[in-house]
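pasting for the record
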Amino acid sequence: MRIHIIQHVAFEGPGAIAEWARERGHSISVTEQFRRGQLPPVDDFDFLVIMGGPMTANDEAKFDWLAGEKQLIAEALREEKAILGVCLGAQLLAQALGARVYSNREKEIGWFPVRLTLAAERSKLFSGLPARMTVLHWHGETFDLPQGAVHLAETNLCRNQAFELDGRALGLQFHLEVQPQGLERLIENSVADLAPAPAVQTAAEIRVMAHLAQSLRPTLYTILDRLSAAAS
């Protein structure tokens, strides 16, 4: 299977997603938006992965490449490709599906639990997953649930943490893919985000919980296997 990854900044890479792809024998291509990389035609991939970044889905005036990326996401949806959006990627996916993206009432940065919804138990991508998982959050934005999407996960401060559409498109506001080295790069490059707030951990608190990344790998792999089956 052909996987294409859109990476917005150098310090938010695919992490364990790329490791999964290599282990499964899938091919990987990457567009590095921070290097003004070229987006591929929609026919050149089976599975589109859209990573995170410090910009927002509404920042087209600052980042002119966002318009082309949104167009590619919309084309991938029409062509029924498998799609995974992570953090900013989830917001872009939600926006491509007609949903609003806006500031959340509180930032969530650090390791906090998400709860799966009752609908997740019957979903194509989340059925059988742990009902409660401690995951990495790093966001100040949120989105409305797209029309027709299944609401999969929530927290007290941010209701729409995950959604799926037809078992082939998935938006994750949180990070399952982060690995310790990538987490360190994220902390180093985003230290300004760590101003004290109710749901913002310190760098030390985030680092001391970095071991949780490894425990999330089986969940991530299950989700990716199910998405790749939808692309077959």
